[in-house]
Amino acid sequence: MQKLDANLFEEIIYDDGEACCVIFSRKSCHVCQSVKPKLEELEEDYEGDFGFYTVDVEEQKELFQRFSLKGVPQVLFFNDGEYVGKMAGEKDIEDYEEKIEEILG
Q: Where are the beta strands (DSSP E) in 47-103?
């Protein structure tokens, strides 16, 4: 998963309009560290069709605040430069997969 800063976020999410998800997490969060492997597994399945990115909320506080997020992990979904939903906390891999399929149509 590619790590995003504010500039890359603008470019990939809004300029390119890629169908993707972004996990907002922190290194010290145990739940975040259990969600990431699930997204990495899905990343292999959707390579080329759907993007997977990560934002470290301690390094990118302004991005975290921009979306008024409360706590981590938060997985935000985007398509065509539009915010299309989020999932908070730990979910089953099938929940993420279902959302991705819904976005890809």
A: 51-56, 74-79, 82-88
Q: Which residues pair with 71 in a beta bridge?
A: none
Q: Parallel, antiparallel, or unpaired for β 20-25 and 74-79?
A: antiparallel
Please state whether 11 falls in left (phi above 0), alpha (psi between -120 and 50) or beta.
alpha
Spell out the residues 6+ positions from residue 43 whose beta carbon is closer than 8 angstroms to its own. Answer: 1, 52
| C-alpha distance from residue 33 to each of 9, 61, 66 (Å) | 21, 19, 23
pLDDT digits (tens, 9 = 90+) for 61-102: 999 999 899 899 999 999 999 999 999 999 999 999 999 999
Read off the pLDDT of residues 33-66 as tens digits, 9 standing for 90 and up: 999 999 999 999 999 999 999 999 999 999 999 9
Distance CA 9, CA 31 (A): 23
